[in-house]
Amino acid sequence: MRVLLDVSAVPDRPVGAGHYTVALASGLAARTDVELHLLARRNDHARWSRIAPAATVHGVAPARRPDRLAWEQARGPALAKRLRADVWHGPHYTMPVRAGIPTVVTIHDLTFFDHPEWHERSKVVFFRRMIRAAARRATVLVCVSEYTADRLRAVVDPRGDVVVAYHGVDHDRFVAKGDDDADLATLGAHGIQPPYIAFMSTIEPRKNVPTLVRAFARVAESRPELRLVLAGSDGWGARAARDAIAASGVATRIIRPGYLADADVPALFRQAAVVAYPSFEEGFGLPALEGLACGAPVVTTLGSALAEVAGDAALLVAPDDDAALARALTSALDDPGVAARLRAAGPVRAADFTWARCVEQHVDAYRHATTAGVRA
Fold first, then answer.
1. Residue 238 — pLDDT band, cuts 50, 70, 90?
2. CATH homologous superfamily for 180-350?
3. What strands lie across the sheet with 140-143, from one edge to the other?
């Protein structure tokens, strides 16, 4: 089966959906029943050749997002025809509307519809249009959680088949038992030392960082040695988080190391007193799952896929209640029984999520798409 996977939206420093696309490309390239072709940006050929050595990389998409998305519609079908691809997979909401071959599109969440205030206006307009187009024209829609699948059906009433394929964890890296000395050396290079509460993600409105900062200010008063590590680059709308830090009264105890290399993240989670991921809403919530895999006590939020993914292996609170978040953090910090239960439950829960299973489910979706054919 000849699969054309569009990897052109993955930035040089991937997060979230980018990690998913990288893991999917790597896993598909290793299979003997898939002939993988990757549609990459110009000048991004070398990176994808390293990620998926057995794949054929086509570095032909423009680098700028508007040009790339226009290219997808105008030139993507011709590439698919030239390659005689059996299926086109758009792993980030979009597809050529007139692809000419069966198509699979991944939908990560419906926040462009449910919470447009969390996104740049231009993205809201574009991705609403493309999600509606995928709902009409894609042969199969892959959702990353049951929560996302339910929202997709409620918001756009898709014509194609909807399947759920959970993300996985790199269980070779995200492990509970590591080399403490090596971990501490890694953290020290970023100015981090225990004890600390860890958060890792792009700093953007949906991640609810101001609530975490206020909750930390509550628990920090009686714990002068405790720090809050906010790892991740500033995204769109990060000013609210910066303002919350400035107004917190504990700004000197909040560490901003910026984007962490993939190799450094397991150390951050393993050595954390708590991993906090208080996002308002997630289609999946990979950082919370990676925290579980590392055996960290995880505190996250109710109301979206985070509760679905974490199950009873994390403490769950309402996302808009900094007092409740502070109580959960205090419980994980101060109650040895709670901390021990969470540290034991996390890796067990995370073991259910593997990239191998995710890749297998995608191959099943591709097979189904090729059988069902092009949706008119």
1. very high
2. Glycogen Phosphorylase B; (3.40.50.2000)
3. 56-61, 35-41, 2-6, 87-90, 103-107, 140-143, 161-164
